UniProtKB/TrEMBL annotation:
Lineage of the species this protein comes from: Bacteria, Pseudomonadati, Pseudomonadota, Gammaproteobacteria, Pseudomonadales
Domain of life per record: Bacteria
InterPro entries, alphabetized: Ergot_Alk_Oxidoreductase, NAD(P)-bd_dom_sf
Protein name: Uncharacterized protein
């Protein structure tokens, strides 16, 4: 996002953000302000901008119980796709930058997973990991908001607001982009969604607890 995007009127923000959200989340705005502060400071900085993580609660501990019991992955993303990135891949990029920072100073890196996946494809990956049939069920945004508030409102209003905006941005198609930045930085392909989910500690603990 740029200053022009951040300062645009509501109509233009709504258009740029995919039609379902007219503002970034508090977390995204704070991240953007932190980047600007570092840029203005003249300190040597590198901006790492990952897309939605594989480990995001929207894709892990929120839907796990329902997928296991009912075989339904319930999310408000409609027909939109996402390109989730594994946290380990982001950590590897950051570690490499810290080891040899000179070549990276002043640069920004938009990181994504290796492919843009539909929710039906995500559900198919969960079918393999959970060893049971999982199908995608599209929720309304209002239903999703209520679910997020029920789970998070008392624990973290900040996180709840971030996730509610994130669902709108995803449903509006803002997270479908795939880049080759990570491959160029690490010399390997990003971890696939299925591989990352199969190695996910939250998912594996859930499966073990059900045995």
């Amino acid at each position: 996002m740029t200053y022009e995007h951040m300062s645009a009127d509501r109509k233009h923000r709504l258009q740029w953000l995919g039609g379902l959200a007219d503002q970034w989340s508090p977390q995204q705005r704070a991240h953007w302000l932190a980047e600007q502060a570092l840029n203005w400071s003249d300190l040597p900085a590198v901006h790492v901008r990952p897309t939605i993580f594989v480990e995001n609660p929207l894709l892990t501990w929120f839907p796990l119980e329902n997928m296991y019991k009912k075989g339904e992955l319930c999310l408000p993303f409609g027909s939109a796709c996402i390109s989730p990135i594994a946290a380990k891949d982001v950590a590897d990029v950051c570690a490499n930058i810290l080891i040899s920072p000179k070549a990276h100073i002043g640069k920004s890196y938009a990181l994504t997973g290796p492919e843009s996946l539909s929710m039906n494809q995500i559900a198919a990956e969960f079918s393999r990991v959970l060893e049971r049939k999982v199908a995608y069920v599209s929720l309304s945004i209002d239903h999703s908001d209520n679910m997020i508030d029920t789970i998070l409102a008392k624990r973290s209003v900040h996180t709840a607001e971030h996730l509610k905006v994130l669902t709108r941005l995803i449903a509006g198609g803002r997270y479908e982009v795939v880049t080759d930045v990570l491959e160029k930085l690490l010399g390997r392909m990003p971890t696939s969604f299925g591989e990352a989910m199969a190695a996910n500690s939250t998912v594996n603990k859930f499966i073990d607890d059900k045995k």
